[in-house]
Amino acid sequence: MKPTLFILAAGMGSRYGGLKQLDGLGPGGETIMDYSVYDAIHSGFGKIVFVIRHSFEKEFREKIISKYQDKISVEVVFQELDYLPEGFTLNTEREKPWGTNHALLMGKDVIKEPFGIINADDFYGRESFQILAGMLKTMSGKEREYCMVGYLLGNTLSDSGTVARGVCEIDRENYLTKVVERTQIERIDGVPCYKDENGTWIKLTDTTPVSMNMWGFTPDYFALSEGCFVDFLKANKDNLKAEFLIPTVINDLVEKEEIKVKLINTPSIWFGVTYAKDRPEVVHRIEGLVEDGKYPPKLF
To answer: Which pTM was predicted?
Structure first.
């Protein structure tokens, strides 16, 4: 059975100033998602699942899904604030989405095979999809043994402002021992640093492994993280901005020794559109990849 690629496309794009998932950046008006789907098809994935919001479903189906639904099986699921476990109700003052692991839970009814998960607005590179697909094909039938494609921090920073990254620590066999979501990382005097809980800037290195939300799971992760979501909601019932993030859930489960996560390094260089002013550089990079023959001028 071929693995599935689950694409997180329900984000608000608040720092970008719009729905960056739908922004045409390639020479034929391609979105970053289009390149991810193209790479996934050529790396052996058999199905694409998108998680979006109802508010832009019509536009998403017209602009995105219509292009390749005859190239690969496609399904759509939805993330909304009030999609909560039984017994919980939404605080009407909450505006912020619940985060990436909540979005992931929306796929539980349509994904029954090993699956990879990515952000819609990140350009991961062909090699990363090949690595992930290869790992997923070895994971069928297993439980609580997952993987993550890791990037070097220096290859993932934006010149336009701070970024959020899951900063990783690994053991000698490349299994995660810790992953902490750092929401403010940027270069200061040329050195990558993150701001900690006390507002202090802590130095990192360009070779620090980080998560770009490119994970590999088996379906048992849905039930496992559902339980974590119940605990999260109980602990954060008065916190209107708390987010249920994949790296945080993974870190908690790793620390409890309930799961193992193998980090596989990729030679790919990440790029993406966190901010609107990142856009010209992304367009330029894609043009370069097309000129080098890595991608055709028109993908689909």
So the answer is: 0.91
